[in-house]
Amino acid sequence: MAPRKSATTIAAPRLRSQLDSGSPTPDAIDDEERLLDLALEDVDLSDLEAEHVEISGCRLTRCKLAGSDLEKLILVDTELAQCDIANARWSDVSLTRVAVAASRMIGFAGPGANLQHVTIRDSVLDFASFRFSKFQKVELTDCRLQNADFVSADLTGAVFRSCDLSGVEFSQVKAAKAVFVDCTWEGAKGLASLAGATVAAASPIDTLAFTSAVTTASGITLAHPDELD
Description:
Blueprint: E1 20-22, E2 34-36, E3 38-41, E4 49-51, E5 54-56, E6 59-61, E7 69-71, E8 74-81, E9 94-101, E10 114-121, E11 134-141, E12 158-161, E13 179-181, E14 198-200, H1 204-217
């Protein structure tokens, strides 16, 4: 699918034309380790535990970071494609000019994350958690986020485009200027917190689905007059 024009300008990762090949192992990465200007392919860093690691100017392809616990991770000018980040916990992570594509992020936890100039495309983020996170110029496109958790997140700089938001929790979010385009809303919760956001749908059916979801979330029951007799 060809990329669609974003509603906001998002800077792409800035990578060198030639990257050094790397194949680090979890045992070789300590606290405050820096991975710079590397091309990592099929590298297995599953269950890696470290603090204050910096990954900058790198391209990760088919890498495994599932179950990793990386507190205060710094990701800058980095691309991740077809990576497995399921059940990883990256608390207080900082992402700047990062592009994620076709990756598996089921159960990912990023509490307190700070995302700036980030794109996430064609990825699965079911049950992911972004509590107390801040989204600044972030776009998620064609992603599945069933039952994800955005409680108390700042989504004012976020665009969700053609995403499955079924069962997502939006309670206490800040959403002024956030944009949602052609998304699925079945069972989404906390929709009253989306005050100030823009919701657009090409299909009247999708518009009705969102209206119904908001009504249900507000505790209002819609009925036909004949049903009240």
